[in-house]
Amino acid sequence: MVGTPLEIPGFYYDSARNRYFRIASQGISTPSAHDYTREHLNQYNSRKRTSSKDDEKQSTTKKHHRNLLPSLNKYLFSRQLAGTFGNFMNAGLLGRRGREITFSPSLQGITLQKIHWVPGLNKYIFSSSRGDMFISSLYSANDSNLHDLKVSPNNGMVPQKVNVARLGLSPSSITSISSNLGTGLFWTTLSSQSTESKAHMCSYNISQDSPENYTQISLRSMKTPHCSEFIKGVGFAVGGSNKIALLNEEGVFQRNLHSKGDVFTLTAVDQNILAAGCRNKSVLLYDLRAPSKNICRFAHDASVCSTSLVDSAEPKLLVSGLVSSISLYDLRFVRHTSKVSHLMSYSGHSNMVERNLAFMCNEKGTLFGAAGDDSHIRFWNIDSPEIVADFQTDTTGTNILHPDGTWMKSKDTEGWLLLVNDRVHFYES
């Protein structure tokens, strides 16, 4: 060793042997000589520098995460983990007060395509294949109480006639109808040789029984709009060719959400989460609080035709696709990279080729119905794969399709409205 040896408390240096030896102590603890070797000091300083960098990085990460939104999975998983229980009594009485609703003036020769219940108006609006828009109530002029109607014999339909008003005529086919929580109406139309695809908005004046404040919005970036959905606190979403357009409640364009596939159906899980069903079998979950690339994705068994939210508090999503597939998924278990298994798969549905068929869930999330391509309307309890009710339209030898349907709740009754050619069938729950 060169120079004067380093003095270490509790040790002495033996120059002949060129090393330190511990001094026998009287019960007093002294540091180990190993703590003062050059290699150990270098290792200690290196660990200290690394630890300092890690602490600085962790502190920066914590500051950064203060401004980050909770992930979509964490957001959904904060919901209650309760079960969904069906109302078997209502399931047993399903359709006992079925009605076949015709209109005055008559709509004979007109094929109805879309229907939407507007709670703020206590009315439903519907459109025809040629672009007509109509509005009507479920009540006849002499109906003081819907329960005065007799029970349907053998699942037959009790006839009822109601008044209908024509809202207007669109120059091209209407592809979707929606509404806000009040009296605002919203619909989309296809492009044609002379016009581009558009979204249309108006408010309905209840006292004057007429629409007002009509406006239209160009959807030139979307060749074919297929569906629309109102999102509380956001506005309207329009799904179509490879994207979703978001508009505020005044109809001003906000942004596009890209889907990499045609969007056939939209369902607002809540004001922050939007579910989209696509032609390519994907179901996409968009977090509207974040950039459009923040997406969770899972695959259904076939091209997705319709979706319906069972309960926003849980939340679970019913997905209907081609090849007669209907499944229930729990959105709280959807991850970016993992495969999602359905909670339940429902048997008995028939839909091999038709994309636009009625599909609707009741308000409580206990029962849902689906129209088949065999003229049948089938209902399931959400907790059972087996059919609880099956109705067949009087086809008189022809196959009648139900292109659209909606759940409604009005005054003293609730049930399902379904389009059948120029009339509406109502199945009371």
UniProtKB/TrEMBL annotation:
Q: Does the keyword Repeat apply?
A: yes
Provide the alphabetized UniProt keywords: Repeat, WD repeat
SUPFAM superfamilies named among the record's database cross-references: WD40 repeat-like
Asked if the keyword Repeat belongs to this entry, the reply reads yes
Q: Which InterPro entries match?
A: CUL4-DDB1_E3_ligase_receptor, WD40/YVTN_repeat-like_dom_sf, WD40_repeat_dom_sf, WD40_rpt
Query: Superkingdom, according to UniProt?
Result: Eukaryota
The segment annotated Disordered runs over 42-65
The record's GO CC annotations read: Cul4-RING E3 ubiquitin ligase complex
Q: What is this protein called?
A: WD repeat protein, DDB1 and CUL4-associated factor 4-like protein Wdr21-like
**Species of origin:** Schizosaccharomyces osmophilus
Q: What is the lineage of its organism?
A: Eukaryota, Fungi, Dikarya, Ascomycota, Taphrinomycotina
Q: Which gene holds the coding sequence for this protein?
A: wdr21
